[in-house]
Automatic annotation (TrEMBL):
Disordered as annotated region, ranges: 1-34
Membrane spanning residue stretches: 117-134, 146-168, 238-263, 567-588
Protein name: Uncharacterized protein
Keyword terms of this UniProt record: Membrane, Transmembrane, Transmembrane helix
Amino acid sequence: MSRSSSPISRPLSSPQLLLSPPILQSSPQSPDVTLRRHGSIISSTFVPSSASLDGNFSYDRDGAFSTPTTPAFRAEMDRRDEEALLNPGHSHRRQSAKHYEQMDSWVRLAKVGTIKFLMTVFFGGSLCLCLRSWEGFHGSIPLSKYEVRIFNALTIALSICLGLNLLTSLKRYAVFLRWAILTKYWVPVEVFDLILGIDELTNVTKLLVLATPALDNKWLLGRSQPWRNSHPGYRQRFAIVCLIWLLINIGSQVLVASLSLFWPTEPYICPLTKYGSVAVADLSKWDVEEEGDHIYSSREAAWRFGLEAQSWSNFSADAPSPELSQLPGTPIYKGDGYFEYRFFYRNPDRPWSDYLQSNRNIKARTRCKEYDILHDGGAGGLTLGVSKKETRFVSIPKSGSGMILWQAMIGRNGNSTCGARCTQILVYQARGKDGSAKNVNKSSFWDCDSQVDQVTTFSAGASHPGIKPSDTFIYGTDRFAMLAAGAIAWTGYAESNWTDRQYRLNTQDSPWSPARVLNTTEVEEMIMRFSIGAIAAFDDHGLRYNIFINNRTCDQTSQKLEVKWKYIWIILGSIGAIQFSALCYLLIRANKSIVRDSSYFSVAMLLRPVLEFIDDVPGRMAMTGTEIKNHPRLRDKNIRYDYNEKDDGTKQVTICVEGEFRGHVKKRWPSGDYGG
């Protein structure tokens, strides 16, 4: 038996046969088919395209073997015969056409555009996180020079990434939008070429120049006048759109560049309550020579400190704390019936340049009672009317015309006569006799109790972990308060055997002896002001006590980051709004036609119908783009990215020429199969 007519030498179920599809070989002279499988030869009779093989087996639709006697084989044969008879070109069209679905295209645009937008959000969030990390989440962080360099490198990198992502996002949106523009408008060939490259701002600028009527016949245009045969309203529309697009691109980059203006670095002020030691006023004694009951030097020191603070500024107790560098001394606060002072923490090495207001304060209060003078004997003494039936004689050590005498009374063993933290002060204002003293037209006398309260804390200042309420160096003693209460009258020594008192006679028209008749309120305020002023001056430059905190040190050359978050949020919000608006416009306008990729081969294939106009021009392959666009056959033509509908219902993607177009008038390409 011959090889071509011999039966199959091995069964179909042979493992060697099922390893791979058989290879069919035939010749024009013989209707036989030889099946080769890796060296094994199987012979069979050649059959037509119905796919039967020698009547013994055949290929079904999926490439599997079937016999002509099975129902599956007969059904497949009937389907293929019917398809071939009724629609002979169907198979070819399916291979040459691409299916376009509007919703699928919109989803792809939304996916790409949203990813770009989320990348902008990511870089903006990363920049904010970097700024907050270097600024500090719970307060300023000291930054060394090395850390500042790292911060600058990170912020520059993130700003560049943010700007580049924003720029590439807008360029990507422009690439998508150009097909909607080319689908909507009939434009000259040169303008068509510029719109294809609209992702480059140089092309947008050139298109703006070409679309501006005021620049006709100017040197910027040269000989190019592509709009002379176009729709009259297209030029202005394109000019406005190009200008807006340029402003958006340039403005977005300016916003990114301006971000760095709002995170300046400033010198870091080391917090006094965190590093090393802090100096506070030693409220246990007024003078270093004070020992035991020998407090004469402390009395004189209290008066001296009070006198030094007489020109210091007073503020309302409700007013915010002023800047100390602008004042002659530490601020003093006046309340309703009291004067208040707020202590400071100071750097032991730089007490007047490195300081911080603490949360400790102290108040001085005074209550005075004025008596009628029944007999004014001057230095000889006074007879006072205590009541209708009772009188009181008061000794006056010294007096002067129109002057005020301040007497601080001393009890037994040098103690107070009115309380532990109080000093009794007798005030005598003598009647003036001549000159400016004549304004004091009567003598007056007051008996006052001046008191200094305990040191307390308030919420406005800074606290310190190393302070204990039992620490007398910080919270003071009763003796310290008693001496402060009588500071206006202390001299530090007994004069003319007046051991029960010390006194000061102030000259006429001085701050503590004004040339006018005083009332009780004025006397009370003068005593309180002098007492609290003495404490303020003592806190400013008196004895010090150092509180140890830790062994940490702070580099005075450190810097801190001051982020202006208000402007950062405004700029980042503007950047996000610009890109989000562009994304929304893209999703609304771009999905009007098939959005082609940016491949040059794809664009070259699309432009083939246009280039066929100069297909017979010699040297066309060496022509420049300008020569092609200005060729007489193309220069006066307006074209559009479109499609043609054939008689058989297929759609052919092409570039249509105005005047020769005989196609659809739809604004949006319908879903379906498109070929070319």
